[in-house]
Amino acid sequence: MTQLSFSTLDHRHKKKQTKRERLLREKDAVVPWAVLLSLIEPYDPKAGKRRRPSPLDVMLRIYFLQQRY
């Protein structure tokens, strides 16, 4: 664990939360990410000769955001 600076701690407590941060926090509380990831993990492409695939959890969250908008 890295030690945080005083400015980081101060900024962390004074920062106003944006709509995007609120939306993502609420979605994390509602959506069972671990269960969904375990269901789709067997179909996730593995790295091979092509470029490395994006992380599965990132792609799942992007998909949910695309469906919302």
Could you characterize the architecture of this molecule?
The structure is a single chain. By secondary structure, this protein is mostly helical. The protein has helices at 6-14, 19-30, 33-40, 56-68. It has one domain. The chain is built from 4 helices and no strands. The protein starts with 5 loop residues before the first helix and ends with a helix.
Helix coverage percent: 55-70%
**Major sheet attributes:** none
Alpha carbon gyration radius: 17 Å
Number of helices: 4
Mean pLDDT: 80
Beta fraction? under 5%
Instruction: Note the gap between the termini.
Output: 37 Å
Oligomer: single chain
Number of strands: 0
Question: Which H/E pattern describes the elements?
Answer: HHHH
Structural class based on helices, strands and sheet pairing: mainly alpha
Assign an overall shape: extended
- Ranges with pLDDT <50 over ≥5 residues? none
What is the secondary structure topology, with strand pairs?
Blueprint: H1 6-14, H2 19-30, H3 33-40, H4 56-68
Task: Write a brief structural summary.
By secondary structure, this protein is an all-alpha fold.
